[in-house]
Amino acid sequence: MTIRILADREPYSAYADVSSSDKATAPLEPVAGPSGSQSGSFVILNGPAGLDDPAPDILVMPAEDFLSLRIHPRAEPSERILYIPYGPVALMEQAFERGCADYLREPWALPELLARGIRLFKLKFHAGERKLELRGTRLAGEAAWIELTESERALLRLLVLNAPFPVPKKAAVSALSCRARNESQALGRCVVSLRRKMELVEPGLGGRLLAIRAIGYRLDALSCG
Fold first, then answer.
1. Quick one: residue 36, left, alpha or beta (phi over 0 = left, psi -120 to 50 = alpha)?
2. Residues 28-49: pLDDT tens digits?
3. Which domains, from first to last, does the chain contain?
4. At what angle do helices 150-162 and 183-201 cross, to 10 degrees?
5. Within its chain, how far is the Cα of 135 from the centroid?
6. Is the pTM of this model over 0.70?
7. Going by C-beta distance under 8 Å and a sequence separation of 6 or more, which residues neighbour residue 154?
8. In this predicted model, what pLDDT tens digit does every residue of 119-156 receive, in sequence order?
């Protein structure tokens, strides 16, 4: 999961870029599992994105800049970036009316941003009588959980946000964390892997990820927050 900070001043611009390859990742709270304690991570990026950079999951920016956006942040779930503006209390009400996901009152520190990010990425949904939760990269049922890859997490999140309606294949491809020469095959492999992991959490759950001919995929479930 990616957070991009568009900082206008210190100390926010001093929050170093973080990548999963050569720098320490910013930890989420530990997740207890059958094999011990594990933790997921956000990738923190600072500064404007490049032309070929994928859109972040969360975009943090000064409240004044957020309020001047031409594109309304209440987009369809398949296109949604979660905006967290920061600034004085006086702009908070306007920001929420404009459609921000959360608001950081100044001054704020990186741990506060990460805590709010964790809250935003807890998705609960029902599949039949079963209650499930997608929390970061962890998919949890009532008796078991499993870690997903970043592509699996993004795809499942997209499906949950749109459930029970179908997600077009083009939008599903955009959820993949890496670009492949054959995007259709890459999406197919991700769907197969996600179904297999869903089955490990709840038998029969994988069968609820349905392929819709000539359209894309849908999740036979209902989001509940």
1. left
2. 443 333 322 222 467 888 888 8
3. 2-119 (3.40.50), 122-223 (1.10.10.10)
4. 80
5. 9
6. no
7. 57, 175, 176, 177
8. 887 889 999 889 999 988 899 999 999 999 988 988 99
